[in-house]
Design brief:
Cactin_central; Cactin_C; Splicing factor Cactin; 13 helices; 11 strands; 580 residues; single chain; seven-stranded antiparallel sheet; four-stranded antiparallel sheet; alpha+beta
Length: 580
């Protein structure tokens, strides 16, 4: 009994010391946790077989200690596995983060490349269409200097750094954004664009100083910028202009060396101002270097083009002379080769003519029947009415509307564009504007008579309405409702599916600025007004169209192009979806 009590006490001590468990408090709620489990049935069988051997105190204690060590080892292995699992999870998260960052970086690179490619394509398109911005011409001159050929090899007359002289502060800041874009696009000429950015930044600083009310003399000589005394600007410009990059670099080293020595006879303030402006003239030298390279090739192209044009004129003249030489002269064989009869003296003719008669004599009005006389104004009105009737017969109301007014204005170029577009005819499902027929959706579109608008350029150019030839695309909408209520023998009413607007601006003064369009409210919610605006000498023109969302995808027919004096705006409207 004493042995059992001592073993029980040792068990309690081991449980409490090694495991922290007691019979009164343990996570299992077992009040007999420290008591030894005895397999009585097993012991009875062993006793019956004569194999039962009771264990001693030392054996029981040793066995308990062995179990406790095993428990500690299991806990240790479990903690190690938790640490390993945490490390593996951290490594997995780091790997996922690296992969995500790499994919995100690639996506950013692709997005940046996409935007830059689009910017480059827009620049090339503006150059091809003759709508170049100043920096587009600068980029074009770089391409020419690098050996690229264009249909027109013209470049800026002055070096590009002189673009900033007449710009406002807002315009200079916009140009700075464009230059930054070119720095990312054109890696082959990165030094050039960095120089342009430096020059533009100097111009912005100078214009900011002017805006703040400081002296404008600093910008009077090619935009030297702020920080230079008014009296020495001319001297600095004369000293630095015309120098090469190497000469300017040597001058900067020499000036800094002289300033460092602190010579008493030296005008330190003046030469510090010179040193501060040398980087600007280094940038200008870089820009002028590329401009001169492009100018040499541009001048060579111009000379070659002039020679070709002159040769073409001579060849055309020779061909025409040969053509006229083959024609009969109409002169008798005995003619002396003169091209007209000999002029008679005026004195001989005066005897046959009334006194002082060098033109027909005016007859009195009473000599003529008043019914045979024509009023010039009335004759012009009748002529216009006849023309309008003919145009309506061949081209719909759009033709008549686009041809009104403009007496005394040469509309031959408008007429050529109009007839060329009208000659294309109509494809399946298209009708002329306002010619869909009675009972159709004709009330949803048409030309709108705009209120008289005063233009700033009226004193210089006479306003006139542009001509146009528009088409309406119509068709049947076979949605669920129409499939239920109609068939091909009794089709549903046609609806407007799209428009094709052709507005002619052949005599636009500023051809580099394309016309624009925008939508405005109409008199009903089912319609809206589409207004087209351009520069002088054209007035605005507007049309009422159906108020439906446009499909702006090129895949579905959207087109907005201004080329050779014609603004083409083609679009289809999105379909209605019928739902019960």
């Amino acid at each position: 009994m004493a042995q059992q009590v001592s073993v029980k006490k040792v068990r309690k001590e081991i449980f409490e010391k090694e495991l922290g468990y007691k019979d009164e408090s343990n996570p299992f709620g077992d009040q007999k946790l420290t008591e030894k489990f005895t397999w009585k049935k097993k012991n009875e069988y062993l006793q019956a077989a004569g194999l039962y051997r009771p264990s001693s105190k030392d054996q029981d204690v040793s066995k308990m200690e062995s179990k406790v060590r095993e428990i500690h080892q299991v806990k240790k292995r479990r903690d190690e596995r938790e640490v390993e699992r945490s490390l593996l999870e951290a490594q997995r998260q780091d790997h996922d983060k690296e992969m995500h960052d790499e994919e995100y970086g690639e996506w950013l690179t692709k997005e940046e490349k996409f935007h830059l490619d689009n910017a480059k394509a827009r620049t090339q398109l503006r150059i091809e269409q003759g709508r170049e911005r100043p920096l587009d011409l600068v980029a074009k001159s770089l391409g020419i200097a690098g050996g690229e050929e264009f249909e027109e090899m013209t470049i800026l007359d002055k070096p590009p750094h002189q673009l900033f002289v007449n710009l406002t502060l807002d315009e200079a800041e916009e140009v700075m954004d464009e230059i930054s874009t070119f720095c990312r696009i054109d890696k082959d000429h990165l030094d050039f664009w960095k120089a342009m950015r430096f020059i533009c930044n100097d111009a912005i600083i100078a214009k900011q100083s002017e805006k703040a009310g400081r002296s404008k003399a600093g910008s009077a000589i090619s935009g030297l910028g702020a920080g230079v005394a008014e009296g020495v600007v001319g001297d600095i410009h004369e000293m630095l202009s015309g120098q090469t990059k190497r000469q300017l670099g040597d001058m900067l080293v020499e000036i800094k060396g002289s300033i460092g020595k602190g010579s008493k006879d030296m005008d330190t303030q003046f030469f510090e101002a010179v040193a501060s402006k040398i980087p600007l003239y280094v940038a200008r030298a870089e820009v002028e270097h590329w401009h001169l390279r492009a100018k040499v090739k541009s001048d060579s192209w111009l000379k070659k083009k002039e020679a070709e044009d002159e040769a073409a004129i001579v060849e055309s003249a020779a061909a025409k002379a040969k053509e006229w030489a083959d024609l009969p002269s109409g002169m008798p064989d005995d003619a002396d080769g003169g091209f007209s009869p000999d002029l008679e003296p005026l004195d001989d003719l005066e005897e046959e003519l009334p006194t002082g008669a060098c033109s027909p004599v005016l007859e009195p009005l009473s000599k003529y029947n008043l019914e045979d006389l024509l009023d010039p104004d009335e004759d012009l009105r009748v002529l216009k009415q006849v023309r309008q009737t003919i145009l309506e017969a061949f081209g719909g109301s759009a033709a008549s509307a686009s041809g009104s007014g403009d007496a005394g204005v040469d509309r031959s170029s408008d007429e050529a564009l109009f007839r060329a577009e009208m000659a294309k005819g109509m494809v399946s499902g298209e009708v002329a504007f306002n010619a869909m027929g009675k009972g159709s959706a004709d009330e949803f579109h048409g030309e709108i008579t705009l209120d008289r608008k005063h233009y700033e350029w009226e004193d210089k150019y006479k306003p006139r309405k542009p001509r146009f030839f528009n088409r309406v695309k119509t068709g049947f909408e076979w949605n669920k409702y129409n499939q239920t209520h109609y068939d091909h023998d009794t089709p549903p009413p046609k609806i407007v599916q799209g428009y094709k607007f052709n507005i002619f601006y052949p005599d636009l003064i500023d051809k580099a600025k394309a016309p624009v369009y925008h939508l405005e409210k109409s008199d009903t919610g089912e319609t809206c007004m589409l207004r087209f605006s351009a520069g002088p000498p054209y007035e605005d023109v507007a049309f009422k169209i159906i108020n439906r969302e446009w499909n702006l995808s090129h895949k579905w027919g959207f087109r907005c192009v201004f080329d050779r004096g014609v603004l083409q705006l083609y679009f289809n409207v999105k379909r209605w979806r019928y739902r019960r």
